[in-house]
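User: What would this chain look like folded?
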Amino acid sequence: MDFIGAYAPSHLTFLLEGFLVTLEVAFLSIVFSFAIGIIVGTLRYAKIPVVSRILAVIVELVRNLPLLLIIFFTYFALPEVGLKLEKFYAAILALVIFESAMLSEIVRSGLNSVEKGQLEAARSSGLTYSQTLWHIVLPQALRRMVPPIVSQFISLLKDTSLAVVIALPELMNHAQILNGRNVNYVIPTFLIVAVMYFVVNYALSVFSKRLENKHV
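Assistant: Here's the prediction, encoded as structure tokens.
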């Protein structure tokens, strides 16, 4: 094990460059999947005829597919129908598709956890269904959803490593490149990669607990 060689400034910089790509992919995926997840989860909660059923089928289909398969589909299959995406955008699209389905279930469960009496009381006071949902139900549900949503974001950050299969220049891809240069770099490289993932994920976990305690 060559720790000195593996942790040369140029190698650490190379890993950090890959980690920045990982964080960028994760951030964009989180933003888009969160927005879509809220919309889909809310529409399913509202039980709109036909729309809710179609969304339920799509969500269940996506949730029961491996993320790796979705990544292959966005990068290798979409070009067959005329939609060719760069590795960066193919990875984001795959993550957004998968995580939106997961988050929509969290949102729907959170909305269902709000007492029906509050919904009825708000409606009887003159609020429309959409006003009740936006001002009464959703704010309470979001507070309850913080822990599972953050946990899903942590999973998303870790799932970005699967994009190594399409050679996205993220952290794991750069780690593999370093390991290919010298077999003695393998353990030191994977150790520093583990530390990078741990630091960010642990920070998210602490943030989640503080938000949860704040709203208890």
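The chain is about 80% helix and 0% strand. If you want, I can go into more detail on any region.
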